[in-house]
Amino acid sequence: MRSTVLFLFILLVSSSLTAQKTPFENIQSEIQPEELKKDIDVWFDWIHATHPDLSYTVKDMDVFYNSIAQIKDSITPPLKVLEFWKRISPLNSQLSDGHTFVGYINSGIVEDYVSKGGVLFPFEVLFNKNKLVIQSFIDGKPTNYKGYQIVEINTVPIGTITASLLSRINGDSEEHRKALLQTKFAIFHMLMYGEQNEFSIKIRQGKKEKTISVSGLSILPKLYREETFEDNFNFKILDRDNAVLTIKSFWWDDKERYYDYMDNAFTSLKEKKISHLIIDIRENGGGDDEFWMKGILKYIADKPYRWGSNYKKKIIAKYRDAGEVIGSIKTGEIDTLIPVDMDITNTFKGKVSVLIGPYTYSSSILFANTIQDYSFGQLVGEPTGGKSGQTGSIQFFKMPYSGLMAVSPRFYLERPNGGNPTEPVVPDIVIDYDKLNPDELIDKLIKK
């Protein structure tokens, strides 16, 4: 009896210690192989019970299933959760959808790591003409190395690094994964290559190369820092004809503040008699469709519109309507039209240009589709990295043993005019510009 009580006490203490692990400590935990294989099995069943049609995004289902089997077969000794993530995360590039991924590294893990003094690659980077270049320090401060191409990091060629990281990040396409990776580069580099206090970085400008030594920084990258309203929404009158409305997200907790801001912007357009409105959604990763319907199209739509056409959705218990069978697939077409609001006095009747690019995604793609399909304006810039047909209504799943998160949508939607949903949204006017100087696109557009 005494030994039984002692065993239960040890078990309770062990469980308590496990429960007290912080997010980053958790991904350092070691898990038994049979438990990791069970994680894969339950995730496999969950995604098939949630996703409306994996073949919509996965290019080769046989290769995908074989990859999963090979990952399971490779797990023979116990693995740390981080090593398990390295094994399963290459499935993300095969899933080929920004709304579908396995082994999601959430902000809690990143914040926990940095709060304990963990250091990261010190620079914010971006892909500029297919070259990874330095933009700033990760705290946003300027650097003398802005615009320098990265050739090597700690003797590892940058091509090797980006290939490894791009395979592990979610995204609709290679261009979309690049757009997402550049916002998470420091984090993904640490996860793949471990914590490194010092970085020897070979850089290139033109034909000249040099190697610099830079210490890692214990600072949250921009993506993981709390944003202000002004970080996401900005209205600016450029001259007597042109104004720019920059929207980096179709979401804000205080909806009324957002709607008031948009209403004031369109009032200003009318009062100043601006003839050309430029709406910049190049850095808009999505949000809630209501924000662009009520915050923008309310003022510029001159005819009734719909935000999509054909759809396919999986019936899951949480969203089941009367008569629907859980696990079944429902297909249909959106036939509801959003009417023109005849009561507002600050409608905009001038020319509308919407700037798009590889990072434009999710709800912002639905917005771009609607603008283009109903001729509410012209799209300008580069093709989106995301598909014109978008998945949505994402669901979350936590693997029982590793604690890693997975995400899956339950529907996909084609653009209002239909067409091939796997193609990107292509702008009406394609303009190449220097990504280190995003305002160059606006300048070129105005000159055209």
TrEMBL record:
This protein's record includes keyword Signal: yes
Residue ranges of domain Tail specific protease in the record: 216-432
Listed Pfam families: Peptidase_S41 (PF03572)
Entry keyword Lipid metabolism: no
Signal sequence range: 1-19
Keyword terms of this UniProt record: Signal
Protein name: Tail specific protease domain-containing protein
Lineage, broadest ranks: Bacteria, Pseudomonadati, Bacteroidota, Flavobacteriia, Flavobacteriales
